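Following up on my earlier message about manganese (II) ion. Here are the inputs again, as you asked, copied directly from the submission form:
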Amino acid sequence: MIEVYSFPPPTVVRVPIAGTCKLFPVRRIFCIGRNYSDHVREMGGDSNKDFPIIFTKPADAIMADKSTIKYPLSCRSLHHEVELVAAIDKPLRQVDEDTASKSIFGLAVGVDLTRRDLQVEAKKNGLPWDCAKAFDQSAPISAIKPFAVLPASLQGKIELAVNGKVRQSGDLQQMIWSVPQILSRLSDYFELLAGDLIFTGTPAGVGALVSGDCVSASIAGVGNLQFQIS
Ligand code: MN
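Thanks, got it. Here's what our run produced:
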């Protein structure tokens, strides 16, 4: 029997790879919350060394650099969170930090768009974060810069500006959990596979976006990302 789809299957979500004409096909998006203590404090939380919260977004939440993003449905408070993103191109299953640090494909700049009003509500009621985090167009990302091996100590300015005014400014050194630590711990729960992206948390300065805002985000040595809210 010939199998035929009843409608065309979705196209593969892809992210450009900086300096090449190749594309990175996206499989899943994992995200880590509460990974910079100044942001944990601004959200009214307690900064400790407990492993940060893990949540996910669908792969098709990805938006390319220079996109126009629709102000999300059913939202009264859309927040920006600039984040370092790690891209994986091989299986990682219960790996240690050393293996993880030698197993990444590359790094990118991402923004974890958040419906903060719905997140506050979910937290208050002990409910999942899907409506707050996993909505359409919620994961704009820059081109991926290849890094076969992570630098021993990741450092560099991570910044986000809205309409030219800096809102978030931190340094990758402030991350409570390093990229290898995050990948190692995630690989205890999930077999990470080629195409997986991991958003690694945001520094302080998160705030609201409104229609018409132009957002520009950057991480030194990694890349730049711009998008507009319509
Ligand atoms: Mn985040």
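One observation from looking it over: The CA atoms of residues 70 and 139 lie 12 Å apart. Hope that helps, and feel free to reply on this thread.
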